[in-house]
């Protein structure tokens, strides 16, 4: 599965461009693997979206 690029210079359009196909790929996985893959996808998207709000050096 492709990891979400968490660089702030990457636009949200770039990050979400293939989101439907990544989610479909998760749905095709065995049930036992899905939760971890959804968490990883969520964390990557959240990191990208919050990355523009707070400079990385000041995060705790």
Question: Describe it for me?
Answer:
- 3% of the residues are buried.
- It is flat and about 35 Å long.
- It has 3 helices and no strands.
- It has one domain (12-53).
- The protein starts with 11 loop residues before the first helix and ends in a 9-residue tail after the last helix.
- The model is unreliable at 1-8 (pLDDT under 50).
- The chain has 60 residues and is an all-alpha fold.
Number of domains: 1
Structural class: mainly alpha
**Beta-strand residue percentage:** under 5%
**Helix-strand topology string:** HHH
Round the mean pLDDT to the nearest integer and report it: 78
* Alpha-carbon Rg, integer: 13 Å
Helix content: 55-70%
Largest β-sheet summary: none
Tell me how many strands there are.
0
Task: Figure out the total of helices.
Answer: 3
Low-confidence stretches: 1-8
Shape: flat
**How far from one another are the termini?**
28 Å
Output the keywords.
single chain; 60 residues; mainly alpha; 58% helix; flat; disordered N terminus
Q: Topology, please?
A:
Blueprint: H1 12-16, H2 19-27, H3 31-51
Give a short summary of the structure.
The chain is mainly α.
């Amino acid at each position: 599965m492709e990891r979400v690029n968490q660089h702030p210079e990457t636009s949200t359009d770039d990050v979400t461009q293939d989101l439907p196909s990544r989610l479909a790929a998760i749905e095709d996985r065995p049930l036992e693997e899905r939760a971890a893959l959804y968490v990883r996808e969520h964390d990557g998207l959240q990191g990208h979206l919050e990355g523009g709000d707070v400079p990385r050096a000041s995060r705790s």
